Amino acid sequence: MMILKKRKFRALIKPLAGLTASAVMIGTALTLDSQSGHADVQPLAVAYAPMQPVIQTEPALPKPRPDPALAYDLQAVDITLPRTKPALKDILPTSTATLAETIKTQTGHDTTSESVYKLRAGEGVGAILMRAGYSAADTAAAIEAATNKASLRRLQIGMEFTIAEHGFRFSVKPGMDIYILRHPDSGWIAINAIRPVETYIAFIQGSIDDSIYRAALDAGVNEAAFNEYVRVMGFSVDFQREVRRGDKFEMMYAMDRDSLSGDVVGIDFQYAGLSLSGDQLGFFRYDGADSAIGWYDENGNSAARTLIRTPITGARLSSSFGTRRHPVNGFNAMHKGVDFAAPKGTPIIAAGSGVVREAGWKGSYGRYIRIKHNATYDTAYAHMTRIAPHITAGSRVKQGEIIGYVGSTGRSTGAHLHYEILVNNRQVNPMTVRLPTGKKIDPVHLDDFKKQVQMVEAEVLARGTQRFAAAEPAPATP
Ligand SMILES: [Zn+2]
C-alpha cells in the first residue's frame, strides 16, 4: 500500500522532475521521508503539501529581458527646451511705401527722388542701375551686396526696380522686398523687408439679377474669389441654364491685402453657398490634412464631380447639343457637343484630371484636345486658337488646369469653344449627362472637418445669413 502509493507518487513526480531544480530536490526529500517505515504514515499528507506548489506551478514562461537602459546609472541631464522660433515679421524690418523712408531709417541719407525702372529684355541688374545713373563702382558694389540675398540670374523681363541715389528696391518673392542701400559706414548692404499684409474676413451675399458674375462683382466679390466660387459650384450647377433671376449666393473667405500696394495677395476660401429656385447648396473648404484638402458639403460629401460641365468661365452657351442646321455647310446635322461663345484667348480648363489622348490639328475641329479621364469618360475641346505649351499627347492634366485658349480654327464661324463629353467613346449632352459624384472625406478627418463647419457656420450665422449650407432643422418632437 505504502509502496503503491510511493510508486504512484513517483510516477507523478517523474515527468516534473526535469522541470526545475527545486522540483527534483523536493522529490528526493519525499522519497527519503517515505522510507522511515511506519504504516500509518501521516507524514505523507505533509509530504504532499510541499508538492502542491510544484504541480500547480504554471509553465515557466520566458521572462522579458531587462531593459538595457536599467543597467546604466541614472544621471541628471540638463534639458534646455527648444526656444520657439521668432516669426520672420518680428526679426525683419517692414517694407515702407516709399524707398526714401527705408533709406532714411537704415542709413540716414535723404532722398530727393526715386523712380521705377522695368527690366528690359537682355538686361541685367547692372544695366538697369547704369541706366538709372549709377557709377560702375557703385553698380559693382551694389550687385555684390544683392547677390547675398537673392539670385540675380534669370530675372523676369518687366520686373520692377525702384531706384534712388543711395539705394534701390526689388522683389523676387511675394510678400518680401530686398533693399540694397549705401550705408555711410558699411558700404553697400542688403536688407530683406517684409511687406505688411492685413487679413480681412469677407462675407458677401447677393441676389442674382441676370448674371451671377455681374451680381457678384457688384457685391464686391474679389475676381479670384469669384473664379474659385464658380469652379466649386460648377460641379453641381450649370450656370448658363439653371441660375434664375432672384437666386441668391453667399460666400466667405479670408483675404490678405498688401497694405502698401492695396493688392489682394491671397484668398483663403471657407464657404460657398447658393440658393437655386429653392434648392440650397453649400460647400465648405477643408485644408486640415494634405490628403483631404477640398470642398465638401456639411456631411463631408465632396463637391467635386469627375467632370466640370462648363470648362470655361464667363462664356455664353451659344449652341446646344442635338440636331441643327450647320452654320458653315448648311446641312442639318447632329451637333455632338455644346458651343460656348467667348472672346478669342479666353482660357479653357481641363474638365477633369486625366491623360491627354490627342492634342493638335484635327480637320474641321481645328486645334483640338481630347482627354481620357477614366475607362468611361473622355472630354474634347475644339477650335482653339492655341494649345497650352505643356499639353501634348500623353501628358497628365489636373482638373481646372488651363489647356488652351478659345479661337475659331477649323470649320467655325466665330470665336467659341466646342466642348464634348464622351461616354464609352460616344458623345453625350454635357449639360444633362449624369456625372459621377466625388468621394466622401476620409472618415479619419470627419470630426475635424465637422468642427471646422461649425466654426464657419457660427461665423456665417453671426453675419445674418440665409444659411444655405445648413441641414434642414430636425422636426420638433411631439
Ligand atoms: Zn460645336
Descriptive keywords:
478 residues; alpha+beta; Nuclear Transport Factor 2, Chain: A; 4 domains; 8-stranded antiparallel sheet; 5-stranded antiparallel sheet; 10 helices; globular; disordered N terminus; binds zinc ion
Shape: globular
Question: What is the number of strand segments?
Answer: 23
Class inferred from helices and paired strands: alpha+beta
User: Over all CA atoms, what is the radius of gyration?
Assistant: 39 Å
Based on the structure given, which CATH architecture of the largest domain is correct? Roll
Tell me what portion of residues adopts beta-strand conformation. Answer: 25-35%
How much helix is in the residues? 10-25%
> What ligands does this structure carry?
zinc ion
How many separate domains?
A: 4
What CATH calls the topology of the largest domain is Nuclear Transport Factor 2, Chain: A
How many DSSP H or I helices?
10
